[in-house]
Amino acid sequence: MPKKTLLLARAGIIASLYVVLSFVTFPISGGAIQFRIAEGLTLLPLFFIESVPALFVGCMLFNLISGLPVYDVVFGSLITLVAGVCTWGVGKALKNKCVKIIVGGTFPVLFNAFFLPVIWYFCYGQLEFAYILSVLSLLISQALSVYAVGTFLSIAVSRLKDKKVKFFD
User: Fold this and answer.
1) CA triplet 64, 81, 47: central angle to 5 degrees?
2) What is the pLDDT of residues 3-29, one digit of tens each?
3) How far apart, in Å, do the first and last CA atoms of the chain sit?
4) Which H or E run contains 44?
5) With left for phi above 0 and alpha for psi between -120 and 50, is residue 35 left, alpha or beta?
6) 91: helix, coil or strand?
7) What's the rounded Cα separation, in Å, for the pair 156 and 101?
8) Phi-psi label, residue 46: left if phi above 0, alpha if psi -120 to 50, beta otherwise
9) What pLDDT digit, counting tens, does each position of 86-114 carry?
């Protein structure tokens, strides 16, 4: 399989997985208190550059199909894109797999926790005290998604890459 075809196929699968995982857990994957299992995919930029735009597209599609306000669709997805770029940079800069996961995961956790409540304020007019509650809730849920689901996924991808499995190489 040509390299460009492989990258495009992998990106399509990642974007699709983000959307599907978000919808499968829909009652808990949206709203002020959310737990998106799909956020575990946000560690994939440690391994694949194409996962950065794929996560952006997957997040945007889920937010759009879910009927979220335009600010949430656009800026929420941009948070995922920026976090993905930062995570990818960590993947390029650090060699230790464990440190990569720990440091790389901080971007999707912190960016979502601190910036999503600002977007929600403009979309839904939340009161100021709700910002702190939303940040705390997102810190917990994002950390669980990214570090529990994402670490498991990262270990699996790393092992497959080490074994030179064609799709992961």
Assistant:
1) 120
2) 899 999 999 999 999 999 999 988 888
3) 12
4) none
5) beta
6) helix
7) 13
8) alpha
9) 999 999 999 999 999 999 999 999 999 99
* Euclidean distance between CA atoms 29 and 42, whole angstroms: 15
**Scanning the structure block, which residue is given the tokens 């997805």?**
77
| Amino acid identity at 149 | V
Looking at the structure of the chain, the number of domains it has is 1
Measured CA to CA, the distance from residue 79 to residue 73 in angstroms comes to 10
Nearest in space to 48 (alpha carbons), one of 13, 22, 96: 13
CATH number at residue 101: 1.10.1760
Q: Residue type at 161? A: K
The neighbour count for residue 44, using CB atoms within 10 Å, is 27
16: domain range? 3-168
